[in-house]
Amino acid sequence: MKIDIVSVFPEYFDVMNLSLMGKAQDKGLLRITAHNLRDWTHDVHHSVDDTPVGGGAGMVMKPSVWAECLDELLGPEPADGPVLIFPNPSAPLFTQRDATELSHAEHLLFGCGRYEGYDARIPEYYRSRGVDVREYSIGDYVLNGGEVATSVMLEAITRLIPGFMGNSDSIVEESYTGSNALLEHRQYTKPAEWRGLKVPDILLSGDHGKVDRYRRDEALERTSQIRPDLIERLDCKSLDKADRKTLIALGWEVSSVHPRRV
């Protein structure tokens, strides 16, 4: 996968050379290039922003600078080029489903905003040119720029590429994964007792069937407590008898298409 990132702080992405992301680049799975948006400016101050039309606080990133940069990186046939992604706190929430979809792309281009954000005509223009433009939020909060959000999305996306993770089963069992996504069960390691706190006995039993059932029940319980909205999205037809029993005990009705609170 080829990944281009545009930022006024390209050195922020030096961290991509570390850990699994760095190893993936060494193996040829990824090719990450961070570009400085100021390289496409023409004034002595290399300015990339201007005052907001209509007044207000802060500065807005200029479409002219972004256009020169994106025109070059997208190439002569932008509709056949990369997926163009802008982090934006006012956009739809980035989810595991989005990460899975984007992990199949050949080329991603991230544009990191700063200040009050980028001129709204930038994504509008490139959509009109046939470019696959995505705007995503990573949560209900505001950051100083798009660099952190880009890093979050990149890690979520690239770790799903075959060969990125040492053990592919690690991905299958994680939170939010699959069509019937749940929060993952809690994890433990040795020793079996630490500072008076014990690992649940069933995990030491050696009975893999009982261990799997315990973990599944705990995943259902944790999801019910922390993210009941995920329980509400489950397909009741996909639930086995033990799942149904657990959900009923947790206060859910499971005779409809989706579970609902009693």
In short:
Residues 1-232 form the tRNA methyltransferase TRMD/TRM10-type domain. With 262 residues, the protein is of the alpha/beta class. It has a five-stranded parallel beta sheet. A two-stranded antiparallel sheet has the order 3-4.
Provide structural commentary.
GO terms for molecular function: tRNA (guanine(37)-N1)-methyltransferase activity. Its EC number is 2.1.1.228. S-adenosyl-L-methionine binds at residues 113, 138-143. Belongs to the RNA methyltransferase TrmD family. Specifically methylates guanosine-37 in various tRNAs. By secondary structure, the chain is α/β, with parallel strands linked by helices. The chain has 2 domains: 2-158, SPOUT methyltransferase, trefoil knot domain (Alpha/beta knot); 193-261, Trp Operon Repressor, Chain A (Orthogonal Bundle), CATH 1.10.1270.20. It is built from 9 helices and 11 strands. The strands form 4 sheets. Strands 2-1-6-5-7 form a 5-stranded parallel β-sheet. The mean pLDDT is 95.
CATH level 1 class label of the largest domain: Alpha Beta
Number of separate domains? 2
Alpha-carbon distance between the termini? Answer: 47 Å
Looking at CATH, which topology of the largest domain would you report?
Alpha/beta knot
Which radius of gyration do the C-alpha atoms yield?
A: 23 Å
The SSE string, one letter per element, is EHEEEHEHEHEHHEEHHHEE
CATH superfamily of the largest domain: SPOUT methyltransferase, trefoil knot domain
Count of DSSP E strands?
11
Give the strand order, joined by hyphens, for the main sheet.
2-1-6-5-7
The amount of helix comes to 25-40%
Mean pLDDT: 95
Shape: elongated
Enzyme class: transferase
Subcellular location: Cytoplasm
InterPro entries: Alpha/beta_knot_MTases, tRNA_m1G_MeTrfase_C_sf, tRNA_m1G_MeTrfase_TrmD, tRNA_m1G_MTases_N, tRNA_MeTrfase_TRMD/TRM10
Keywords: Cytoplasm, Methyltransferase, S-adenosyl-L-methionine, Transferase, tRNA processing
